[in-house]
Design goal:
This protein is of the alpha+beta class and about 190 residues long. It is about 15% helix and about 25% strand. It has 3 helices and 10 strands. The protein has a 3-stranded antiparallel sheet with strand order 1-2-3, with no helix packed on it. It starts with about 25 loop residues before the first strand and ends in an 8-residue tail after the last strand.
Length: about 190
């Protein structure tokens, strides 16, 4: 007790409050040690509702590994005709799990304009569309295709109807048995 005027302590009494002891709460289930690749287990855990201390824990079952849930592929390094590339994806469940896959070098075949690794009349058709939609002012065509570098089959520095004509000659003189044509596309060594 304190004085209301000078605030001096007038008396003191010690009161001992006995502890209530732990009061168990409802058991809760917790998944322990589960990863994408390792099984975990299910524990039934009882905590004190007063102080939060763990009072008991009992393993009640096994939980199978979650498995990977992969995100989208991301190209880290695009392949070229000179080198391989690499792509990666990350596990949504655990970002420390990363998968890398090499990408093979690009095949550079003169005349394979659409990049399907086969030289056909379709490649010649794409070149003709490219030429028909070429704008002299901008130096560009509204028609785009994968193998622009493969389209200049006579290596004169331009993509023209002559390149389409050479592809058609290549196709017309192609021998399915040998897998070759008597018409050579690209640099003439």
């Amino acid at each position: 007790v304190y004085c209301s005027v000078c605030e001096a302590e007038l008396s003191r009494e010690t009161v001992v409050i006995p502890p209530t002891g732990h009061i168990p709460s409802e058991a809760v289930e917790e998944i322990v040690d589960l990863t994408c690749i390792a099984a975990g287990h299910m524990d039934s855990v009882v905590y004190c509702s007063v102080c939060g201390l763990e009072l008991s824990r009992e393993t009640v079952g096994e939980v199978p590994a979650a498995g990977h849930t992969w995100g989208e592929w991301t190209i880290i390094s695009a392949p070229t005709t000179e080198r391989t590339g690499i792509k990666m994806r990350v596990c949504v469940n655990d970002p420390s799990h990363v998968e890398y896959v090499p990408l093979r070098k690009l095949t550079y075949a003169y005349g394979d304009v659409n990049g399907d690794e086969v030289i056909t009349c379709i490649d010649a058709s794409l070149i003709l569309q490219y030429v028909a939609n070429y704008d002299e002012e901008t130096g560009m065509s509204s028609v785009e295709f994968v193998g622009v570098a493969c389209a200049d089959v006579n290596c004169d520095g331009n993509i023209t109807g002559m390149d389409a004509s050479l592809i058609l000659q290549y196709v017309a003189n192609y021998d399915d048995e040998t897998g070759k044509s008597t018409v050579v596309l690209g640099p003439q060594n």
